Amino acid sequence: MRPLLPYGRHSINEDDIKAVISVLEGGWLTTGPAVDAFESALATQAEVASCISVSSGTAALHTAYAAMRLGSGDEVVTTPMTFVATASTAVALGARVVFADVEEDTANLDPRAAEAAMTSSTRAVAAVDYAGHPAELDALREVAHAGGALLLEDAAHSVGSTYRGRPVGGLADLTTFSFFPTKNLTSAEGGAVLTNHPDLARQARQFRTVGLVRDPALQRHPELGPWHQEVHELGLNYRLADVLCALGNSQLSRLATFRSRRAELVARYQQLLGEVPGLRLPVARPHVDPTWHLYAVRVLEGRRREVYDGLRSAGIGVQVNYLPVYWHPLFEDLGYRRGQCPVAEAFYAEQLSLPLYPDLTNSEQDRVVEELRRVLEG
């Protein structure tokens, strides 16, 4: 049997391995110079003032919401077409999630739907850059700020993407990244929170470090000694280790190469599948330059399950991204019901992610296309 082609995977080279070994042979394993270097490099790449590394993309979302001081009685307006953590981390802080529908072509949060979903309790609008295509950030920022809320950009898919010529990272009040192995660059596990707001940066950094306050000027009892540190508010240990930041920093130096290869593969898919009946291909708006995390086609005429099963049996590791968040039993048990975001649900019924990662060869991609054609034409 031919080897399985996954829908996504990491790309590791000798420089990555050397970077990790260098930390292992050094004096720090966590909260040391590699963390500072990775945060500084990410901030520079994203053209943003502050970057706070954390232990996962989920931790980044939790930290960002905590930095907003989100809590009971507050509402977050977000998209259902995302990984569950975009919503569940807000619920973990006691907030209520309000789902708004998505744009029909990009599957990103629709600014008009977000505006209609807002109330006097809305504290945050959380957009997701689905598949690496940035959401309509200017319109969403205007909607959020007009309602007295902050804009959070869940950019787990879009590290390296640009929107109207500016890199993702400093375009919202808070932006979160994920460095899971299938993402555009990896630190094995990891994430980051980015912001241009000093107060939000301070809150985020404090929350991810167990809430510890080390600055004597901010302490309640600094007279206890130079060793003294104290906790004023709940925080968690979401720190990212030096050894992982070393890998992340090495990967970041190759982000342009990753972007370029992903773009080449997407262009080949677009050409090879452009005339295949029964498919709808992804689009990119002229004012964005995505770093494609997913190549998400839509399988028409109710054949998504047939195509999924056929490709899986042929060793093509396709995936579905994602189940609408409010379909999860967690949200069903909170009273959410199907049907509230029909555009998102229609997208989910047809969505299928084909293999896409920098080390995917042209011949392997040709195999994907060949098998997809075979199943559709069979």
Describe what this molecule looks like in 3D:
The chain folds into 2 domains: 248 residues, Aspartate Aminotransferase, domain 2 (3-Layer(aba) Sandwich); 123 residues, Aspartate Aminotransferase, domain 1 (Alpha-Beta Complex). The longest helix is centred in the last third of the chain and has 19 residues. A hairpin with a 2-residue loop joins strand 7 and strand 8. It has a 7-stranded mixed beta sheet, sandwiched between helices. Helix 1 packs antiparallel against helix 8. The protein is built from 13 helices and 17 strands. The protein has 378 residues and is an alpha/beta fold.
Q: What is the structural class?
A: alpha/beta
Give the CA-based shape.
Answer: globular
How many helices in DSSP terms? 13
Number of beta-strand segments: 17
Q: What's the gyration radius in Å?
A: 21 Å
Q: How many angstroms separate the termini? A: 21 Å
Major sheet:
7 strands, mixed
Order of helices and strands: EHHEHEHEHEHEEEEEHEEHHEEEHEHHEH
* Top CATH class of the largest domain: Alpha Beta
Strands in their spatial order, largest beta sheet: 2-10-9-6-5-3-4
Strand residue percentage: 15-25%
Number of domains: 2
Mean pLDDT: 97
The CATH homologous superfamily of the largest domain? Type I PLP-dependent aspartate aminotransferase-like (Major domain)
Enumerate the spans where pLDDT stays under 50 for 5 or more consecutive residues.
Answer: none
Annotated CATH architecture of the largest domain: 3-Layer(aba) Sandwich
Query: Which range best describes the helical content: under 10%, 10-25%, 25-40%, 40-55%, 55-70% or over 70%?
Result: 25-40%
CATH fold-level label of the largest domain:
Aspartate Aminotransferase, domain 2
